[in-house]
Amino acid sequence: MGRWQRELAEAIRDPEDLCQALGLDGGIMADVTTAAGFPLLVPRSFVARMARGDAQDPLLLQVLPQGQEAASPACWTGDPLGESESLVAPGLIRKYHGRALLLVTGGCAVNCRYCFRREFPYAESGATRRGISEGIAAIAEDQSITEVILSGGDPLLLDDDALADLVARLDAIPHLRRLRLHTRVPVVLPSRVTPSLRGVLGGSRLARTVVLHINHAAEIDDAVVEVIGRLAASPAIVLNQTVLLAGVNDSAEVLAALSERLVAAGVVPYYLHLLDRVRGAAHFEVPEQRAVEIHRRLRETLPGYLVPRLVREVPGERSKVWIA
Ligand SMILES: *Cc1c(COP(=O)(O)O)cnc(C)c1O
Ligand code: SF4
What we know:
By secondary structure, this protein is of the alpha/beta class. Helices cover about 30% and strands about 15% of the residues. The relative contact order is 0.12. The model has no long low-confidence stretch (mean pLDDT about 95).
């Protein structure tokens, strides 16, 4: 077992342990649930970046299951993006021109409370070894696909051998030009980005992009900066997407600090997503009008290339919808 596998095995899974590790008193437990269907999961290295004794810490709020999750309005559903309807083969989601998204695992290194896939039926939708093979066969048959996006769950939870095998099979499909990874692992479990992982990615003939998912500057410590450098050196373009979350990053100041920290680490801000209306996440919503206002102030603060596009995912649309 490598270091990252051990760190994942030792991740915190019990809300009480998390509160204890942060020196939060028992009072906070009244609002906390065990969230059996989508339990707490957070690696200790991520917890180490949270402020001790602060129940409103922006990293803590992203992972701690709270009682208000049960109070979601009925229109907040389990599959807000209609992804099950876009499955063209097991594990393969096809929504946009030229791009196909391959679900390679259901697992993540962290469970984010606002995640739109928190109820996604991975087992039925093909994020298995056999499902992946069928997905790859479907990609090989469709010449209009030029870019494959590895997603999940988190593709970097595959070990190097599984990932190398997958990359080799995609490399062998002549009409593919680009490979993209959507991952939160370099941020929540940086030890996964080993020197050998760099070799696995670097061995591919496909042009690579890694899209990280970071919501707050405090998520980026020195270890994260180091592994981002390793990904970039593979080489790959490194971008970031952020979800706009009430109480976590819903101000121009917080988002500007994030962009500054990202660019210092060599990462370009890509998307700022309005929250998808998934059951259990309603308390994170920032109304669209406020989001537009925050984004306008961000534009007035930063150079254009440090301002992520404000987007929303709308089922049936042929691209993400650009709000601003
Ligand atoms: C977001 C997404 C993509 C990628 O969209 P870009 O605008 O190219 O980043 C591709 N497929 C699916 C299903 C997506 O949700
Ligand atoms: S890492 Fe990504 S896919 Fe996994 S729970 Fe968080 S938002 Fe969802």
